[in-house]
Structures are given as C-alpha cells and as structure tokens.
Amino acid sequence: MPNNFRSSSMKLYFLGTGSSYPTRKRGVSSAALQLDDGNVWLFDCGEGTQIQAQKVTLSRQKINKIFITHLHGDHLFGLPGLLCTISSQIGLSEEELQKKGAPVVDLYGPQGLRRFVYNSLSLSRSPLLFKYQVHELVPIKEQYLEDWDQWVVDHSAPSVTHLSELPGSLIHPVEDSNGNVHWKLFDDDNWCAVAGWIHHRVPSFGFVLNQKGRPGTLDKNKLIELGLPPGPLYGQLKKGKAVTTEEGKLITPDMVVGSLIPGKSLVILGDTRDASPLAHLVSDRGCDVLIHEATYDNSLKEKAAEHGHSTSGQAAEFAKRINAKVLLLNHFSQRYGQVNEDSQDEETVAVLEREALEAVEGTSIQVKCTEDLFTYELPIASREVMK
Fold this sequence. Notes:
Number of strands: 18
Largest sheet: 8 strands, mixed
Structural class: alpha/beta
Shape: globular
Number of helices: 10
Distance between the termini: 14 Å
C-alpha cells in the first residue's frame, strides 16, 4: 500500500495487521517504530514478523526494545525466531563483541513473558550473540476474567537464567490519588514510557510513549551580530546556559534560541474491548498517534465484546476521548479483504475506515486503516498532515 503521509525522521512500520493467525493477505500483529536516532522499537511479534521485517527498510540489528502487549500467540509466537535472527545478523566477531560489549535488547510485557522466552530459547538450545533482559508487568485483579483459575498455568519467572540473559525487573502497578494505575517502564533523556491496562480476555496493556521536547533552533545570524562566532559556546546556549562574549556581553538562551520543539506522543494498544482504563495516561493535549485495533465493523459489536475486541466505531470513540490527532486502525478479522483486491463481492477494510470516519466527523482526527508493510512517517511539524 502506498504511503499517504508526509515524511520525517521517525517512522512506524506495520509488519502485520491481521488477527488470530497469518493468511496470504496479512501477517499477524507487529509494528515497529524507527526513532530519529536509528534505533528500532518493536510492538508485538506475531509469527512471521521476522519475514515481514525483511520487506521494509528496517534494520533488525537496530531493535533494542520489544514491547509485548499480551501473551496471545498472534502477538508473541514470532519472538523466539526474531531474537535468533537478530543474533545471526549482528555481523560482529566474538573478539569484536568482547571489545565493544554485546548489545542489549530490553523486553517489556506481562508476567509470564520471561518464562516463555527462557523456555523457547533453552529448549531449542539457542545461544544469542547479544544480551537480553525481560521487564515483566504484574497485572492487577481487574485484568483477569472470572474463569482464569480454571486453567492453571505457571506465569512465574524461572529460577535460572538463559546464557544470554541479564537480570530484568518486575514492574508493579503504581496507583495515583484518583485510584488509577499505571506501570512505569523507563524515563530517560529522550523518552518517558508508561503502560496502562485495557480490557481483554487475558491481561493486556497499552503503551504510552512521550518524547521529550528538544531545544529550539539557534539564530546564528543574530549570534554573529552579537559578536559570538560559531564555536563550542553555541552548544552551551542550546543546553540553556548563558555565555559571555570576549567583549563581555552576556548572551542568554532566550535571546538566540527558538521555542522548545515539542516531542511526539504515541499510544499503542494491545487487543481490547475497552481501553478506557488507560485514558488517564494521555495528557490534555492529546496524542499525535493512536494505534487501536478494529477487529470488526459496528454491526458485529456483540461478537467483538464476546471475544474481547473492538469495532471501528469504538476505536474512533476512544480516539476522540483522548484527543488523538491520527487514528491508525489494525488487527482486522480475516473476513475483511484489502481495499485494492480485485473481488467486488468481498467486504474490505474500507467499511471499517468509513465507520471510523463517520464517528470522528466534526473533529480534526485523521483516520487510516493500515495494511501490512504500510509506513507512517511522523512529520517534524507539530501536527501530522495527510495528503
């Protein structure tokens, strides 16, 4: 499918957009975010993800974080194979790895993820040329269905580690003064990432990613006029520090540095029939991009609820609730064909997109049904613009 968005330095690649199992039309759930520094974050890893990743301009060696929304197979079964493929394509000798240090991949997901990865890699005797660590989110009781205990499965972490595994962490929910909960994933110089719970048949999470703002552009012409030629002091001004010229003139950042460039905000959800428990994590300003499942059209609302899924209309309503600028729909039932297919009789995702558009009518929200290998580029401007 051709790209319909303006270009920029951060990109979202949709590697699989189907539900339940891969077909000749679509792979199952996986999306990758390529950051402006070249690193790649992967969201879910259904079977076949590593093959899909070869069809786009995406370096698997640059994957350094993998987020798993929930432990259903169509979001998880491709993970062991992908990890082995990353290892086989690192392209560094053992001597180089010892000198530079092995890369580290962080995995985030529900409790049970570490046991799944350990068992898969250990039973297949799969060594890795990089290190990985698993950060498990401990679910709350509201995430379990009433019949959960009828199928007894051990979700606890194994007592031993894989040869390539580093100690990870167990992330417990944090409750705010209003009784809302969230899970703190990480907060570094560039990004703050948290998770929130959403309703599904198994513990399922959504991830809220907030990129931190960057200093504005230096007015180099004005700096020269003020008597400060290009040099290391420019960097000090970018960092927010005042400097003094050789003539003793004080130059403060507000005199020569433009307004703060706001970072992007993305909300990437797992399977859900209701994402409202996560809404409090999105600021009043809203988010730049919301990725939300739309397994069925509105006429199948009861079936969607029965299986823990959403319709296109429900996805649009949530987009309005959190003031999303762009709504990207995925996780489509096999009953919906691709828009560009020859068959005139088959229902396509066009019906889902049309329903979502009708639901957001009167707002500025842009809506798109994604397809496998679709690329969405996040413009540098403050708002995304569709052609």
